[in-house]
Design brief:
alpha/beta, Rossmann fold, 8 strands, 18% strand, globular
């Protein structure tokens, strides 16, 4: 009787193991069948040969006696270098932007990460902020970026007072806006940005919400649509390299298609779009998409070297006091 009882228990657990095994196999099949194919044959960015130094800096803003926060990463070697400004996305300042700047510096670029939220904040999607306040903060924030970019271009760090811009998501929008008004901007690298607000708002906001929207909200909607970067692109002579994940659920890839069509309709300026299959938003900042991140950085380095003036060895050491004058006073610690 005991043997019969043990036999029943044995068969029961054997049945349970088989069920769990079948469930595991079914789960794997479901996951793999839903997985999107990823872009293949991606090449990592090469290792840079420059040592670099880094510091917080203060940048001019549109408010008197107020400064914007930046983070400068530049080659340790004396001399001027091609300069690049990095503009963060809607989520604000991430440490990943500094890692990107370090990669650029290791390849001989002076790289400045701007925290354009440090002076002006803009309520892009709220329901109660008055239109006049939104518009004022939005335009002042763009002016903050323009002032900081111009100041960096004319600093002792940059060759021929020319810069490139790298924008991420909302920062890509900001990069094209700055390029449209600043002749010092010669190259724009744009990651998964919103460029055509008429199409983006139509996709992301339901008709019911728009039907119930206040007059202030409708004025803000019309303002954003009219002032979309895609509508300003004829004023932009800078060359452009764009990246977008095909599986981006936040900013549809069609945004980059629209912008590329506008860029190529210009009479001057190079434009190229690189797509990554099976990849979503913010792929360049996330550790789980290293192949796409590294491949995009490799292509960005090639693009920036082709469209920005390159380093010439100085005949004598630069005036160190001029370089230090751009640094944030009292803060010489590196941000690791």
């Amino acid at each position: 009787m005991i043997r019969s009882f043990l036999s029943i228990i044995h068969r029961f657990f054997k049945f349970i193991r088989i069920r769990y095994l079948l469930l595991f196999i079914l789960t794997v099949l479901m996951v793999t069948s839903c997985a999107r194919p990823r872009t293949s044959n991606l090449t990592p960015a090469p290792t840079g040969s420059y040592d670099y130094e880094e510091n917080y800096v203060e940048l001019p803003s549109s408010i008197e006696n107020a400064t914007m926060t930046g983070y400068l990463v530049r080659p340790s070697k004396d001399g001027k270098f091609p300069c690049v400004v990095l503009l963060h996305g809607k989520g604000g300042w991430w440490r990943a932007y500094i890692r990107y700047a370090r990669k650029l510096a290791s390849h001989g670029f002076s790289s400045l990460v701007i925290n354009y939220y440090s002076v002006h904040q803009v309520d892009l999607e709220g329901l109660r902020t008055p239109f006049v306040q939104r518009k004022s903060n939005f335009e002042r924030q763009n002016e903050d970026i323009n002032r900081a970019v111009s100041a960096f271009a004319n600093s002792v760090h940059c060759i021929h007072n020319k810069v490139g811009l790298i924008g991420f998501s909302l920062g890509a929008d900001k990069a094209f806006r700055a390029a449209a008004s600043l002749p010092v901007v010669k190259a724009v690298v744009a990651y998964y940005g919103p460029y055509d607000y008429a199409a983006l708002i139509k996709k992301r906001i339901s008709s019911v919400v728009l039907a119930l929207a206040t007059e202030d909200l409708l004025r803000w909607k019309n303002y954003l649509e009219f002032h979309s970067p895609a509508n300003k692109i004829q004023n932009t002579k800078a060359s452009a390299l764009m990246f977008h994940g095909v599986a981006d659920g936040l900013i549809p890839v069609q945004q980059s298609f629209t912008m590329m069509k506008k860029l190529r309709a210009r009479k001057s300026g190079y434009a190229q779009l690189k797509l990554y299959e099976g990849t979503g938003h913010n792929f360049v900042l996330r550790r789980r998409t290293p192949r796409e991140r590294e491949d995009s950085i490799r292509l960005a380095l090639i693009f920036l070297k082709n469209h920005l003036p390159q380093t010439r060895e100085p005949s004598k050491a630069q005036d160190v006091s001029k370089i230090r004058a751009f640094h944030h006073p009292g803060n010489d610690q590196q941000n690791s």
